From TrEMBL:
PANTHER family found in the cross-reference section: RECOMBINATION PROTEIN RECR
Taxonomic source organism: Flavobacterium muglaense
Protein name, UniProt field: Recombination protein RecR
Function: May play a role in DNA repair. It seems to be involved in an RecBC-independent recombinational process of DNA repair. It may act with RecF and RecO.
InterPro entries: DNA_Rcmb_RecR (IPR000093), Rcmb_RecR (IPR023627), Rcmb_RecR_Znf (IPR015967), TOPRIM_dom (IPR006171), TOPRIM_RecR (IPR034137)
GO biological process, one term: DNA recombination
Family annotation (Pfam families): RecR_C (PF21175), RecR_HhH (PF21176), RecR_ZnF (PF02132), Toprim_4 (PF13662)
Family designation: Belongs to the RecR family.
HAMAP family per UniProt: RecR
Region forming the signal peptide: none
Keywords: DNA damage, DNA recombination, DNA repair, Metal-binding, Zinc, Zinc-finger
Zinc fingers (C4-type), renumbered ranges: 58-73
Gene: recR
């Protein structure tokens, strides 16, 4: 793509680094910003900069947060003994949107995936196991997507906490195999949390 302006070219190059945005879309967005009042671009730039500079991760559940204890972990009305294990903040948001879960979360930050070079040590697994072993947890619910990576991760964690005196369950699979949680509709996802099944039984049925 030939540009008549180095300034536009630079902006387009940066915008097109974002996933799903090609050069043409990036150019469209850049031209859109030029048509808007200057403040709008400043607000956008400032929002991105402060997000990057000030975002934190919850010390307890590792969810993305504005402070070192996220709002969910700080909420005393939630059941802190029930811990739902998810991949990332999008799953937390999807489950929160169902309004069906009053426990807390543990955000792994990904799934075990040898192909992508992601091993257990790169995920927040040890802090989950520690949490369970301190005896403050009564139930762990696996809510990873039912892909091979999700199942591998569930089973890896299960092996480490299987001898603890807690309930280990998995969300009921109303969700088709391979679907990502964030795309499941709220009703289906809400139902699958309410009708969760013991993990060892779900595993044997596979
Ligand atoms: Zn938290």
């Amino acid at each position: 793509m030939e540009f008549s302006s180095k300034l536009i070219e630079k902006a387009v190059n940066e915008i097109s680094q974002l996933p799903g945005i090609g050069k043409r879309s990036a150019l469209r967005l850049a031209l859109h910003l030029l048509k808007q009042p200057k403040e709008q671009t400043r607000f956008l730039a400032e929002a991105l900069l402060s997000m990057r500079a000030d975002i934190k991760y919850c010390d307890n559940c590792h969810n993305i947060s504005d402070s070192t204890t996220c709002e969910i972990c700080a909420n005393t009305n939630r059941n802190h003994q029930i811990v739902c294990v998810v991949e990332d903040i999008r799953d937390v948001m999807a489950i929160e949107n169902t309004g069906q879960f009053r426990g807390v979360y543990h955000v792994l930050g990904g799934k075990i995936s040898p192909i992508d070079g992601v091993g257990p040590s790169q995920l927040k697994i040890s802090t989950l196991v520690e949490k369970v072993k301190t005896g403050t947890v009564s139930e762990v619910i696996f809510a990873l997507s039912s892909t091979m990576e999700g199942d591998t991760t569930n089973f890896y964690i299960f092996k480490q906490i299987a001898d603890c005196d807690i309930v280990v369950s998995t969300i009921a699979r109303g969700i088709a195999v391979g679907d990502e949680l964030e795309y499941a509709d709220e009703v289906t996802l809400g139902r699958s949390i309410l009708h969760r099944v013991p993990f060892d039984k779900a595993f044997k049925n596979n």
